[in-house]
Amino acid sequence: LIWSNQLAYNPYQGTTGFDDEETMLPSYWETKFSRICLGMKNGGETNFIAVNVTASSLYSLIADGKYRPTSLGRDKGKSLLRSRASLQYNCNREGFNTLCGWSGAFQPRARIGILSNEQNNCHSCDSRIGFGTGGHPDFSNSCGNVAKHRADSGDKNIKTMGYILVQ
C-alpha cells in the first residue's frame, strides 16, 4: 500500500543520506522529473543506473498499478549488482508495475524492475531484479535480486537497500 498512497513514511530518515533506513517523502507524489536514478546497496557497494522517463511524479507512474514498459535491457538492470546479479534468459519484461504470469500474492512483480523466465514466455517467471518486488519465488525480498531455475549466474537471493531519486 505504501506505493499507492500519499502519506509520508519515516520522513526524518530522508535527511540522513544513503543509509539503511526506509523512507518515503512527499517528493514521491509532488516532484516532476525527466530522469530517475536507481541505486542498490549490497554490503559496502552501491551501484546506480539512470532511467530517462518524464512524469508529473513517481506516484503518477506507479500508484495506479498500470504496467509501463521501459527499454533499458537486462544488462543495465543487472549492473545494479554487477557480477553477482542473475536472471533467466527469457521474457525480460521490464518497467513500472511489472507483473508476470499467475495472479494474486503468488504473482512475481516489481514496482520498478525486470522479470525473467526460463521458458520462452512470461507466464511463470522465477527471477527478478527490482524495487518493490514480491511474489514467487521469494515473497520476503522486496528489493534486490531473486533467481531460480537456470538463471545465467545461478540461483540467487540478494536483498539490497534501494534508492530511488528523481531529477
From TrEMBL:
The protein depicted here goes by the name: Uncharacterized protein
